[in-house]
Each structure stands twice: as C-alpha cells, then as structure tokens.
Design goal:
Pfam families: Peptidase_M14. Keywords: Hydrolase, Metalloprotease, Protease, Signal, Zinc. Belongs to the peptidase M14 family. By secondary structure, the chain is α+β, with helices and mostly antiparallel strands. The strands form 8 sheets. Strands 25, 26, 27, 28, 30, 31, 33, 34, 35 and 36 form a 10-stranded mixed sheet that branches. The chain is built from 25 helices and 36 strands.
Length: 839
C-alpha cells in the first residue's frame, strides 16, 4: 500500500578511505535525522564534565502537605547564570523557572510543584500538576482508581464511579534535548493560563482532568545548549536502559501518573512534525488501542498549528500519513513516546518547526533567532492546548482504552488483527504483531550464568513496573526443574508489552523497510548476561511471592585460609576486582582471566562481595600478578561511563589532548574509538604515542579504532566496514583466547566491522556466526553486494595479538559498551584490557 508521494531521503555518500574497505554509497537517511549517539560518536571523544552546579539557597526546597492538592513546595532558587544559552533566544533561563513557579503557587490553588529528581549536575527537575483542588480523601480515591485500572482492569471496566469520577491524567514532557528549548516556554505559558484563568471552561476542565508538566527534562543541556545530558547521553535514546538520572525521573512519572495521553516536545522539523509514526511499529503494542486516538489527536494538533496563521506552520507533517516507511519509525522502546505507550499512554513526539540550535544558533542574527523562538513557542502552546481539549472531549473513551490495554495483558489475550483502513491509510505495512510466551524464567543456582546479572535484570524489570515473582520452593515448567529462588515473569500481566520488549530477542526487520531512524535491535535477555528461559505455554502452578527487590547474590564460598577466585563474567565482577586493586591489594590473574585474591584479603573480599553482589570461590592453580590499570581513553560518552562504572581509572584523551602534551608515564592502556586519528597528531605527539605503544596495550572499537590500527601499524588485520547503519543483536562464535573465552554467544553491533587477511601473530577471539548472524535489528547489504550480514558471516569480529611496536592490542568490530545497554558484554572488554595491559 503506497503512502503520500513525499520524498524524505537525501543521498549521502560515506567512505572510510583510511580504512582498508571498499568505497560505497550509503543508504539514504531521512532528512529529519538528528545526530544521536550511534555512529556519529566515533568522531568526538568524551571529556570530563564538571561535576556540580552553583548551589541553590539552602533550605528552600521544603515540601508541604502531600496528602491532597495543591501541594505547595517552596522551590530552591538557583543563582543567576548569564551564560545560560536560552537567554540569547529570549527564552526562560533555568534559574528563572523556580521563581516563576513559586510565584504561581502563591497566586493559585490549582498548581502544585514537586521535585521529580535531579539532573546529572544536581539541578532540580520540576513536575508541575495542574488540577482543581482536592481534599486528601479525594486524592486517595483518585489514587485507588488509578491502581484499579492497572491491577484489576476487568473490575475497573465495570466501575461506573470510576468512569465518571476519574480525573484523566495527561503528561506533557519538555526539553528532553537540551538545545530544543521552546517546549519549556510553551508549557510555562499553558501552566500560567490554567493556573490563573477565571473562566468557567478552565474550571470545568480542571475538575475532570489532571495535567502533569515536566517543565525541563534536561536542564543541564538547556543551560549548556547541548542535545545531550551532562554525561554526554542522548536521553531520548535511553529509556530501555535508563542509565541517566533524568530518564529515571521520567520513568517515574510514566509509572506513577499513568497518563492516558502524553506529548514529548522536541525540535526542529520544518512545518512541524506530529506523530503517529511510520511503520515499523513496535510489535509488542496493542496498536489498535493506540492508532485510533493517536491519529485523531494528531489531526487535531495539525489544525491547531495551522490556526496560528503563520506561513511557517501552514503544512504540518504527520509521518504516518506523509512519510515513507522507516523514515520516522515507532519501533524502538528507547524514545520517550514509544516507551510511554507501554505504560498505557497514547503518546506523541512533536517536532517544532524553526531551527534555532546548532549552526543557526551561532550564525543567525539574534533578532531572527528570537523571531523563530516565538513561533516555536506558539506551536508548543497550540499542540498542548489541542491535546488537553482532545482528552477532555474523549475522556471516557481514553480511560476505557487504557483499561482495555491492561485487561488484555492480564488475561493473556492475543493481539488483535487490525483490518486495512482501520484508520485512513492503515495497511499491510503497518501490521506488526508478536506471540507472547506464557512466561520467562530466570533460574537460580547452577543453571544461572551470572547471579549478579540475574539480580540486576530482575531489579530493572521491577523498576519498570514489570511484575516478577520468586519461587518459594522448587518447581517444574516446560519439562525443566527449577530450584527455589528462581524468578518467574508471568506474561499474564498488565504491562506484558514492556516485559516482552525487554526479554524477547526481537526481530530482523531488514527486509521490511529500507532505512531506520535509529537502532532496531536490543535484548536484555540476550545481552545483559543472565540466563533466561522461555516458557511458551502451560499452567504456572508455582508457589511464589511478589518481588520488590532481587535477593542478595554476594558471598565468599571458600574455606578460611584459602585463596579466593573471582571469575570475570560480568561488569560487576570487574568492579569488585578493581575495588580490591584500588585498595592496594596484591591480586593475581590466571590464564583464563580469573582473578585470584590472597587469603589474607578475605575481609576485603567479603566487603566487595556484599557491595557488588559477586561470589568468590576457592582458587586453584598458578596466577600472575594483576595490578591496577590506568586507561587513556579516546572514547564516546557511553564507553567512558561503562569503563568508570567498572572501576577503571580513565583519563579522557583526544588528538587535541595528545598534541598539547600528554603524560603517558602512568598509563597502562590506550582505548581508541572516538576523536583520535593518528594522522591528526603533530610529530611530538606521534613520537610520545609510539614510545608508549612499545610497552603499553591498546583496545580499539569501530571505524575510528580500525583506522587507528591501520595508520599506526599495530596488528596485521584488514578491517572491512559493514553497512554503517547496520545495527542489532548478532550471534557470535567465541574462541578460547583471553578475550573470547567465556563471552556471551550474542553481541551487539552498530556500524559493524570485521577483520580479514590476518597475520600469523593475530588470533581470532570471536567470529560472527555462520549463515545470517543477525538475530534482531536492521542490517542490509549495500547495492553493490557488500557490507551485509551474509558477508560478515564467519568473519573475525574481535581479534588480538602483539603489535609490531611491542605492545598487545585487541580490535573490536562489535559494540560491547553501546549506550550503557549490553551489560553482559562489559566483562569481555575488561578481559581485553587486563590482557592487553599485562605486558
């Protein structure tokens, strides 16, 4: 079925001329694609960020009575910051927001402000609630109804008091990308109008609804004028992992407020972009319950934007109606809007029209920037206003819609077949479905690859409002016997879609759409390091209790007076080992990478076992000394975070840092994946680097790392670039060497590489599996027949060896630290570091 004939692709030719791979024409990306945290991060190395902001006045963040509404919170006020990037645009600087909200709370009994969390640099995240005043008993009734909708949806559907009395919750999220400012300012306009208007319509609106505004989701980025958080992460790619505090705060809003509808206000797409998206649509959604109201409210927002009378907003774009499949997809749960759908929301990403960031911020006259910002703020206000009115008009249907989503999940019903024309334009290309298993089991005991990984996975599921139970006694399922203490995720639960999107392997959608907006594959089951079994059908006759937090997993299992062994099968194991090394303890390392702790350090081992949840067994066999490792890292922000989370001493570097003079004397290893080209170094920096490489180790990743290996002449290995947008979960075959031995059978790629023409001194640590190694994701072959998964099959994905300069090197063609997600791969990187830095 064809969509409107609107071309949204650009021709783009990329080459990796410095890498020994064929030149090729890349698949055309959408014109709307902004830089994320994918292949683009190969170019700019992470740096150390400032760790704090100026403190607010002490004692000013004292919350009042939270038993009803309004909830008066005297917000702490931050010092004026004249460098706030929003000032130039005529928009609200962060330091002005708290005084404005304090003043509105003093004027109105309809507004409540709470602190949803803090940013990475400690700035408050303001959650504003606008509703008619409620007594404590009225608030308790609303809370009970919200709980009933999720926990007993069949009963909720029969409750006439709920149907007439439940206040429809709506969530407006703003400024998640820090340099997409105007969502905050448009929201503040709406907040002020709703809090202070005295007309009857506003009063009635607030009696029937609750409106929640996350005023600025990324205040650090707002002040600095950056898309990313202070840690360099794109928060709108983080929801499946929630590595950032700002994202965890938004997750709390989605779960705690359970919105019927939500908007995520972004920028910038000419004319204004209003979801719903193009296909592919997430296969775990009850999509019929989304698209009916998603499309209708999208059309309503379009009319509201057009009604502004601005030529710049005359033709809003609705991807579902106007774009080709894949150019603005709804597949990945990494985005705010797509994640919120799993919590019962009909949700939208809104892209306001007039660009004021990036190069425009620097080159456009201030008057023009402020003119654009005014238009953008009007668009935000129009989309919010239209949505609030839509919810009010369709309140009963939207409540029933959310109840039905949770009811289907609880009952374990199959997804509905959606007929062509269900809404105008719906056809076969929009139809994505899955079959939910009966349960997932995370076994305890000997069948569990990593108890600490299992514990982490369980805690993550619970934090996302996925229900997990722990068996009180041994049980059998699907012909397998499981010990007491095993965890069961019963897929007859309200948010089964979210449970499944995290635990399934996903799908290979390479043949279904020509290009994807961002990643297309992820899997907590395959990539987080825990053993997870699938139970397709059957009864769950298990005596179990609900899990609030996973059981402790740490301990020391060796007899007193014996040396201890710690196998590095998880990043937490590495954290424990580095913790002991940082205490100055003398550790050892066996040939298979196991860390040996002397019996004299038993008390310290017990402390880190409790802290990180790891287990020590009794050591046997010889070990060589293992010392603390210091890493010079030209890496992306996600890799920097992962390395530091594992306890490594990491010193960020780049070509500029090395050219300015860098002290290599205390560095053991260089990690290269971003922001460092050998050809960009001056002669002195090259000499210093080569002197280091004669004694120190190197680990590289991706295009930048492959180019570095070639330019410096480390290992005899020809890197071949796969399709640069290729991404997803891949099946691998591990070797028995120091890096591949014991690694997971699955890995992750984004812009995959492999290595051919290997020299005699180069060992293959890991290969892509034969056949088609792509398990889930989007990885296509170029038009010239190169770069696809079939070409990667059987090829070396990770190699190691001793370089011609004298040091050891490991080259990764995979993405083992990508966006803080594939946590089960971290130990493989640590083993590479320990081995390469051992000389």
């Amino acid at each position: 079925m064809s969509r409107s004939a609107r071309t949204v692709f650009l021709a783009l030719v990329l080459s990796l001329s410095a890498v020994a791979a064929p030149a090729y024409a890349a698949p055309p990306p959408t014109t709307h694609r902004d830089p994320g945290n994918g292949p683009e991060r190969n170019e700019i190395a992470a740096t150390d960020q400032p760790m704090s902001v100026a403190r607010a006045a002490a004692g000013e963040n004292v919350a009042g009575d939270h038993s009803g509404y309004p909830r008066k919170t005297k917000l702490r006020v931050y010092p004026e910051n004249t460098t706030d990037k929003s000032i130039k645009l005529g928009l609200a600087p962060y330091h002005a927001i708290a005084p404005k909200l304090n003043a509105l709370q003093a004027r109105s009994d309809r507004i409540s402000v709470e602190i949803a969390g803090q940013s990475g640099l400690g700035r408050d995240l303001y959650l504003v609630t606008i509703t008619a005043p409620e007594s404590p008993s009225e608030t308790r009734r609303q809370d009970a109804w919200r709980s009933l909708i999720e926990n007993d949806p069949a009963r909720a559907a029969r409750d006439p008091f709920l149907r007439h009395g439940y206040k429809a919750p709506v969530w407006i999220n703003n400024n998640i990308h820090g340099n997409e400012w105007e969502g905050t300012d448009g929201a503040l306009r709406v907040i002020e109008k709703l809090a202070t208007s005295n007309d009857r319509k506003t009063a009635e609106l607030l009696k029937r609804n609750r409106f929640y505004f996350n005023v600025t989701a990324n205040p650090d980025g707002r002040v600095a004028g950056t898309r990313q958080t202070s840690q360099g992460f794109d928060p709108n790619r983080d929801f499946v992992t929630a590595s950032q505090p700002e994202v965890r705060a938004m997750r709390g809003i989605a779960i705690g407020k359970q919105p019927l509808m939500m908007l995520d206000e972004h920028g910038y797409v000419a004319n204004t972009l209003i979801e719903p998206t193009t296909p592919p649509h997430g296969q775990n959604y009850d999509f019929d319950l989304y698209i009916k109201h998603g499309y209708a409210n999208g059309l309503g927002m379009e009319k509201a934007v057009q009604a502004l009378g601005r030529p710049e907003t005359a033709k809003p774009e609705i991807p579902f109606r106007d774009y080709e499949p894949g150019s603005w997809d709804g597949w990945a749960p990494i985005y705010t809007a797509q994640y919120a759908m799993y919590h019962g929301a009909v949700s939208f990403t809104i892209e306001i029209p007039m660009r004021v960031n990036n190069a425009d911020y620097e080159t456009q006259p201030v008057a023009e920037l402020q003119r654009r910002a005014v238009i953008n703020t009007e668009v935000v206000e129009a989309t919010i206003g239209s949505t609030l009115n839509y919810v009010d008009r369709n309140r009963g249907e939207l409540i029933a819609n959310q109840i039905e989503m949770f009811r289907r999940g609880t009952a374990g019903e199959a997804q509905r077949e959606i007929p062509d024309g269900f809404v105008p334009g719906f056809g076969p290309e929009d139809r994505y479905r899955t079959e939910f298993p009966r349960a997932y089991v995370i076994p305890a005991g000997a069948d569990q690859r990593s108890a600490v990984a299992a514990s982490r996975l369980v805690d993550h599921l619970v934090a996302n409002d996925v229900r997990v139970r722990q068996a009180d006694r041994a049980f059998s399922l699907a012909g397998r016997r499981y010990p007491a203490g095993s965890y069961v995720v019963d897929m007859h639960q309200p948010k089964r879609g979210l449970a499944n999107v995290m635990l399934e392997q996903g799908s290979d959608i390479s043949a279904k759409v020509p290009v994807m907006y961002d990643i297309s594959g992820w899997s907590h089951r395959l990539l987080w390091g825990a053993s997870v079994d699938i139970v397709k059908q059957g009864r769950l006759d298990i005596r179990a209790h609900d899990v609030v937090a996973a059981s402790p997993t740490g301990g020391v299992d060796a007899a007193p007076g014996r040396d201890l062994a710690l196998k590095l099968v998880d990043g937490k194991d590495v954290s424990a080992a580095n913790d002991l090394l940082n205490r100055g303890l003398a550790l050892g390392r066996t040939d298979d990478g196991t860390v040996v702790v002397p019996a004299s350090a038993r008390q310290a081992a017990a402390e880190v076992a409790d802290r990180y949840g790891v287990r020590f067994t009794e050591a046997s066999g010889p070990a060589t000394p293992l010392t603390r490792k210091t890493i010079a890292a030209a890496v992306g922000p996600d890799e920097l975070k992962a390395l530091r989370d594992m306890g490594f001493d990491v010193r960020p570097v780049s070509a500029a840092v090395l050219n300015a003079g860098f002290d290599w004397s205390r560095v053991d290893l260089l990690f290269v994946s971003s922001g460092l080209r050998y050809t960009d170094l001056n002669p002195a920096a090259k000499d210093a680097l080569r002197a280091f490489l004669a004694r120190g180790g190197v680990v590289t990743r991706g295009a930048t790392g492959a180019r570095f290996n070639t330019d410096v002449g480390l290992l005899e290995a020809r890197p071949v670039a796969g399709w640069e947008d290729g991404n997803g979960v891949v099946s691998v075959v591990n070797g028995t060497g120091p890096v591949g031995g014991g690694a997971l059978p699955d890995s992750f790629v984004y812009g995959p590489f492999w290595f051919t023409d290997l020299g005699s001194s180069v060992s293959v640590e890991q290969r892509y599996a034969s056949g088609n190694p792509l398990v889930a994701g989007h990885w296509r072959t170029r038009d010239d027949g190169t770069g696809g998964p079939l070409q990667a099959a059987g090829q070396a994905a990770v190699v190691s060896g001793t370089s011609g300069l004298g040091g050891r090197a490991v080259l990764f063609g995979t993405e083992p630290l990508f966006r803080d997600h594939p946590k089960g791969l971290y130990s493989q990187v640590a083993r590479a570091i320990y081995w390469a830095a051992a000389k």
